[in-house]
## 1
Amino acid sequence: MTTEPPPTARRPVALVAFLLPRIEPGSAAREAETVPLPEPIPLPEGCAGRPFTLSCGRPALSVEAADPAPTDATGDCRDRQPAGAALRRAAALKALVRQRRLEALAPLGTVLPAAPGTPPPDDLAAFARANAPALAAAFERLCGHAQFQVLVAWDAPRAARRFAAAPELSGLPRRPHRAAREAAVAALARRLGDGIANRLAATATDAIRLPDTEGGLANLVLLVDDTERVALEATLEEIDALWKEGLRIRLVGPSPALSFARAQLETVGPDDLADAARRLGADPGLPVAPAAIAGLRRRALAATGGPDAPLPAEIDRAATLLAACARLERAPAAPGEAVLLSLARDGLPMAAGRADLACAIAEVA
């Protein structure tokens, strides 16, 4: 299950993703999920995999790789480029290689991408114990899902004629001022874009609306269950039928859910762990039972209100740190660090998956 690490003599290794390998129905590993997968995992070129075990007993991999060398693309152009251009080229190459690696991992199982430049944890067993609930929740959320981006744009100059009967345009005089016509078309674009976005979001488990490009109506990233891909395709066909000659629809995906869940790792030292225990009224020199943390948190929240009292967010953070110590069966003030997992996303969720927010595209137009 482990591959040889890539050559990284001068390039640091970064975490690419955590991978929950796919288990084929009827396999021995399917029947006994506490047994690591016997077959080697065909990781992307340049990547290495270190195995660890989730709290449920399923085997997982920490997929790691060094940043690409400048010569990994079209040759070494460092001597012929200004410093700024070389840096931009290197950043673009890193992003491209990272995306290709993540896409190559997708067929192998459930992929939890890492934020760019994230160093991998040294002790994977301790990391898995400390973050057992977060890892389980992340893999459960992403399993059987893929990310798609949908961009819908239109031919704005011709829109006034195509949608002349729309409420925004039907009340204009026969020869409206240019500013009035442009304002009416912009209002129609907002309404039509909202309708398209809601229809697309209704096919997804989660959806994020991104800023529109020039001439754009809707720009979304969708987290789509594998069983809902047919519904997504049908909705795209419905949108396309609205104005085949004037709409441009671009679909990007399927790909790993980079916009919805990126693993970020934080290394926390014993001083901060001990301070978290004190915030909750626990002895930093003694281990805390996992069952006691909820009560400590409730008492700390009930005591807030004074000028020196910690904020609720600080109490929640302290409870998270103390829970990690409890799962590691260590005293907060004991020597050694803890590596904690958090998930980042690109934006706030739309009200995805709610059919009551979406009506037929023809009705919107």
## 2
Amino acid sequence: MCRQLKLLLDRKMNRKFSVLFFFAALIWGVSAYAGSDSALNRFFDNWDDWTISRLDTDYVTLPSQWWRVGLLGAWQNTNINVTDYSMMYGMFGNADSDRKMKLGLQGSFRGWGASYSFELGGSDRLFNFLYFGNSFGIEFVDNRTHSLNGNIDAYAWGLDADYGFVPNETPIQILKDDILHHCIFVDGYYVFNSRQFSLPAAMDQSYLQKKSAGSILLGAAYVYNDFVYSKNSDFFSISGVENITISEFTFGGGYGYNFAYRLMQNSHFLVHFSLLPMISVWNRFHVKTDEHSLAAGLNGSQKHGHYWIWDDFKNDHLQLVWFYRSSFTFSYKNFYIGVKAEIVRQYLTKDDGLDLETDVLNIHSFAGIRF
């Protein structure tokens, strides 16, 4: 038994390291071709000249190197709070993911970049793909978490004349692997002061910020949260809920600022912060249950032996998503080291008593080289 378990763990680790090896080989191969005297090389030379012509080079410029490769140490945390009075019972729930370190690799070519990190000894993983231009950009984040744990306090509604509800004697426990949380986040931005302020200088080091500057930002995002409940979990055995999916489009504006300081020749500090509050312009959630669920048949339909419930969060309340970025980077010649943080806080509420708050924190420490 121990030998079989060891072989299984070895296979999982080999798959994770195979992804990193393929990623590194791809970067090396494209780099070798782009570095040759090719049509692609000449195209990017012309592209660089055009890009620099649109910058105030006293504030922002491009490094002469096209490529960046670095190592990642990633910490990710997901926290979920739910309050629900929308049916014949009440519920307060909280779940929090493990704060274990992930290891990974990042690489980028000019503003195009990608990173992959995975949890040592666990199943959580994070994939990121982005294009960060100085005027506009887009980022795709795919995060899978198996380590959510917490508890749910369930209440029977209307059984107590004084308080209106009676608490369960024992909260429902949420154990690790009871829930698979799959989060997809796609966001885009537009920078008004793109001649003097550079978001990619702070977030992927594809530009160089020489003097301090700030800018008003516009942003739009799509947020998708999928919660799959294990059929072995206490929550599933009591509620019959198999899957909850929540998605929304948001739009908003904010501000970003880069504080740049030159320490000595060829060495710079850069500190960045930006805040983008966004308003939900469309949202939707659906619940998939089995036929014995407490919620089966409520505002939904039966299909393939399951009940599906669709609804939205449209009401008199503003549905908000707060998106915060910050980073600290030190660079010396072609080398750089730093840490960056991204926080996505999603808050949705309904008039019938359903409130959902999701906080996702991603922190990356990184060290890399331009070439």
## 3
Amino acid sequence: MTRNLKIAIAGGLILVLGAAGAVAGYFQYQAYKLRKVHADAERYYADGDWKRARFYFRRYVALERSDIDALTKYAAASERVLTNRPVVLQDVARAYMQLYDLDRANHGALEKCIDAYVRSRDWNNLEYKMSQLMSERPDDLELLYYRALSLDRLGRWEEAKVHYEKLVEADVVDYPEAYRNLATLYQERGDAAGALALFGTVVEKHPDKASIWSEGGLFFIDLKKQDQAREYLANAENIDPNAPDVIYLAARYALARKDYEDGLDQLALLLAVEPNRPRGYLASLIAYQESGQFDKAIEFVNGMAPDLLADQPELCMARVELCVTANRLDDARTHLDVYKTWYPEHTVPQEYLDARIML
């Protein structure tokens, strides 16, 4: 071997070893950066700085996709961020779905994923995820209900009807809303007899289910058939007058009769037993509005927990409208700014509210 060849080989070895060292150094640096990102995320999480915790956990779990503790904290921190709420909730849903994919026994993660999609009104992704999971478990009634609901909300009514009918065939009792939703689809498509027959059949099969009687009562209230609504309410109250579904029906029945005092009393009872569901808040706001109690309506919405209010864009918009109606224009501007922060993509209603304030 010539001296020049030896020099060339030695030089090549030095380059290879140098490159290997550089690669090793690069990966060591990347690992250090990832540990730092995780440490920052944990620190901000412990401090309750949810925006920063969310930011750093998001960077971390993008690379460490199987870290269950980090995914759980990322979802929890995101839940507390109100800015751009729909996007945040979609991230929450994805995090919980990732947790469920890592552990199929973690049904709580699936429930939280579904809840986040529902709160964000992300019906497309909810339908897609339910469809995927139903390919594994086609007889799962929870998946079937939420796929039917998402199809319904997307306006794919024929598909929704087929899925609701499968729930009826399965004699489902855990999702009584399915019966009202299906009856409404029948009614809206001209099959009033089918809608009435549906509830007649189901209450005959389940005469002891207050929740099913309650859904029937709500269906008749929507049709402005107060006699039938009163009958269903009476049966529901005979079974369990303290059940939230029954209290809600009693409140809606009172409001349908313009008895706002009784309706608001019933809604106060409802909110005491289910403070985290939006239906009681929406109905209360309507009661205050229809009875002309605008200032009370505003204070009622102001008294809601911010995270609960942030999930209800209808209430955010209504609060601004109420302030304008009550000539509280400074409050209207303040609440509109909040609405814009929480729902920056709602440009059309926000432009309308801007115009209302200026008039």
